[in-house]
């Protein structure tokens, strides 16, 4: 695979299409300006920011432009100018930080009432899932580590009397673990905050990242079935999309299992929290990176499930343009020959994707999202 660059006044053109790391791939920035749609943000080599913009003016490759030049080169919407400034101020180069910037900017109403309402719902849902995760985590600790049978209800934890009861039980548990009650309280608070986007496996309500994994699994199956029953995909792009989805799932499920394992060993996790906390943070960050961009892909496909076949074909072509490829470094962690298999799959679809001999890759076929920002929040 080649990497060619052309210098320009405000940036350069790169034809490398398979990133080595998540940081190289960058995080999706939900701009509303069409040219900037589905662009990605990453740190540059000078501790600044740069933006990766796919296939401008129908050309091949992806333009890498210095962050300050973006406002000079493009006529941005008012919302995008505000988002651009927020990203710069906070150095939002991770999915968590970008999500916060996106919601805060949407809450200004600059992207319209639909985006504002979706952002409100998303923020309320995140807070509810954080509280639910905290409740189920505390209840799990009480149920499994309390010296005497005990349980708590949501109503109890919402009342002063119930909170006193919970404190008394946790004090007993802390004594049994040989730790201070303050340490146990702090551990549970931080723990639930860290895993709130994923939640706990025993929760009846699935939190955002588990829901996204389930939607991705459904998309993988649906894309494969759609190819079999449709004659409108002769290049088999839906099979490529299904392959990328499967690889994402194969890498993601073990990460979730690692996070869930800590909740299966409560006493060990709580007593060793100083070493456990950075591990859990790392796994959640990795999962967020892995799934970054898939919300936009799934939103596009969901919107055409009941549409005419030609609309589905257009949607699948758009999806292939923006597939969030798993970086090579992550595939090296994933045992087996997944990298080779997917590279072979890409070679099968050389016609719609690139001129393999010249190495000129049409990144626009891999990275561009339509204006569906609000629904993907």
Mean of residue pLDDT values = 81
Envelope shape? globular
Low-confidence residue ranges: 1-9, 11-16, 349-377
Radius of gyration: 23 Å
Strand content: 5-15%
Distance between the termini: 34 Å
The helix/strand order is EEHEEEEHHHHHHHHHHHHHHHHEE
Number of strands: 8
What is the number of helical segments per DSSP (H or I, 4+ residues)? 17
Order of neighbouring strands in the sheet with most strands: 1-2-6-5-4-3
Largest sheet geometry = 6 strands, antiparallel
Instruction: Name the structural class.
Output: alpha+beta
The percent range for helix content is 55-70%
Architecture overview:
The protein contains 17 helices and eight strands. The chain has helices at residues 22-25, 70-73, 78-90, 95-106, 113-145, 154-157, 160-177, 181-195, 208-229, 237-264, 266-271, 273-291, 294-302, 309-321, 328-333, 338-348, 350-353; strands at 5-7, 11-14, 27-28, 40-43, 49-54, 62-66, 354-355, 360-361.
Q: Could you give the topology of this structure?
A:
Layout: E1 5-7, E2 11-14, H1 22-25, E3 27-28, E4 40-43, E5 49-54, E6 62-66, H2 70-73, H3 78-90, H4 95-106, H5 113-145, H6 154-157, H7 160-177, H8 181-195, H9 208-229, H10 237-264, H11 266-271, H12 273-291, H13 294-302, H14 309-321, H15 328-333, H16 338-348, H17 350-353, E7 354-355, E8 360-361
Antiparallel strand pairs: 1-2, 2-6, 3-4, 4-5, 5-6, 7-8
Helix pairs in contact: 3-4, 5-8, 7-8, 8-12, 9-10, 9-13, 10-12, 10-14, 10-16
């Amino acid at each position: 695979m080649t990497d060619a660059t052309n210098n320009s006044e405000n940036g350069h053109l790169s034809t490398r299409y398979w990133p080595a790391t998540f940081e190289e791939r960058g995080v999706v920035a939900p701009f509303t300006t069409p040219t900037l749609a589905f662009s990605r943000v990453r740190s540059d080599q000078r501790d600044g920011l740069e933006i990766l913009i796919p296939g401008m003016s129908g050309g091949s490759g992806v333009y890498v432009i210095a962050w300050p030049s973006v406002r000079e080169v493009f006529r941005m919407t008012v919302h995008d100018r505000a988002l651009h400034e927020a990203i710069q101020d906070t150095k939002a180069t991770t999915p968590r930080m970008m999500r916060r910037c996106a919601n805060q900017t949407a809450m200004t109403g600059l992207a319209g009432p639909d985006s504002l309402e979706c952002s409100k719902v998303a923020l309320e849902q995140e807070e509810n899932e954080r509280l639910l995760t905290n409740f189920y985590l505390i209840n799990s600790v009480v149920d499994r580590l309390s010296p005497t049978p005990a349980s708590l209800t949501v109503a109890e934890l919402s009342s002063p009397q119930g909170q006193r009861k919970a404190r008394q039980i946790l004090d007993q548990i802390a004594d049994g673990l040989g730790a201070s009650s303050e340490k146990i309280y702090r551990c549970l608070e931080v723990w639930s905050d860290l895993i709130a986007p994923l939640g706990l496996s025993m929760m009846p309500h699935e939190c955002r990242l588990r829901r996204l994994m389930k939607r991705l699994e459904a998309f993988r199956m649906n894309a494969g079935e759609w190819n079999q029953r449709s004659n409108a995909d002769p290049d088999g792009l839906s099979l490529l999309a299904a392959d990328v989805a499967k690889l994402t799932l194969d890498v993601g499920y073990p990460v979730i299992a690692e996070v869930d394992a800590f909740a299966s060993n409560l006493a060990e996790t709580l007593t060793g929290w100083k070493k456990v906390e950075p591990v859990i943070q790392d796994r959640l960050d990795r999962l967020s990176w892995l799934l970054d961009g898939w919300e936009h892909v799934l939103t596009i496909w969901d919107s055409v499930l009941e549409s005419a076949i030609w609309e589905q074909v257009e949607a699948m072509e758009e999806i292939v343009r923006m597939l969030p490829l798993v970086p090579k470094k992550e595939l090296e962690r994933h045992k087996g020959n997944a990298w080779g298999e997917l590279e072979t799959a890409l070679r099968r679809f050389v016609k719609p994707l690139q001129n393999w001999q010249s190495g000129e890759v049409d990144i626009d076929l891999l990275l561009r999202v339509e204006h569906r920002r609000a629904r993907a929040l």
